[in-house]
Design brief:
Shape: globular
Largest sheet: 8 strands, mixed, barrel
CATH architecture: Beta Barrel
Strand order of the largest sheet: 1-2-3-4-9-10-8-7
Distance between the termini: 29 Å
Number of domains: 1
Helix content: 10-25%
CATH superfamily: Sortase
Structural class: mainly beta
Number of helices: 4
Order of helices and strands: HHHEEEEEEEEHEE
CATH topology: Sortase, Chain: A
């Protein structure tokens, strides 16, 4: 790839540093977000649904993940002065963002959507992302009136020190989607220690 070569783990660590205040106040033992099991990783048995033909470029407007009750507007995200991916405003707990300088969801390539797992008030838009299962559907409503339908291939969690930039952000030969939030261990000093990443590919549209 190298389209996302300037986005390292700092891109998603920013989400972690702005989240976690609720866990810090309320206790991670009681309120820790769900984490994906090993069965949801790529190594587990799963038959991909056939990939659909790419859609024309169109900015996304909304993300829906019915199985975990996500239904949220999308805002465009750019890069910070340090070259990492910016994040949605932490105070808006039901808002996700997409990297608007990259691939739009549904066109050929790797589209990126990111959001908070929690904020100072409680769970945020992707709090239940780690509970997602292979084969689940992610719907991206686009400004051209189409809805891009993605099938989940894997849900994995990575420690910040071992975040696989190329695997997550690398170019794809079909329309793919990554949905990213905070996850892994939690430290009161530094926030979440890693990230939950959902891998999905386009299977249809309406």
């Amino acid at each position: 790839m190298r389209r996302f070569s300037n986005i390292s783990i700092a891109a998603v660590t920013a989400v972690a540093l702005l989240g976690g205040a609720w866990l810090l106040r309320s206790g991670a033992e009681t309120h820790a977000p769900p984490q994906p099991s090993a069965a949801q990783a790529r190594a587990g048995a799963h038959v991909d649904r056939p990939a659909a033909a790419p859609l024309p470029p169109s900015p996304p407007d909304r993300v829906r993940i019915p199985s975990i009750r996500v239904d949220a507007p999308l805002t465009g995200l750019g890069l910070t002065p340090q070259g990492s991916l910016d994040v949605p405003p932490a105070a808006r707990n039901n808002l996700a963002g997409w990297y608007e300088a990259g691939t739009t969801p549904g066109e050929k390539g790797t589209a990126i959507v990111a959001g908070h797992v929690d904020n100072a008030e409680g769970p945020a838009v992707f709090y239940r992302l780690g509970a997602l299962k292979k084969g689940s559907t992610i719907e991206i409503e686009r400004l051209d009136g189409t809805v891009a339908l993605f099938s989940v291939d894997a849900i994995e969690v990575y420690d910040a020190r071992d975040f696989p930039d190329e695997k997550v952000y690398g170019a794809a030969r079909r329309p793919e989607l990554r949905v990213i939030t905070c996850g892994g261990g939690y430290s009161a000093a530094t926030g979440y220690q890693g990230n939950v990443v959902v891998f999905a590919h386009l299977t249809g549209s309406r």
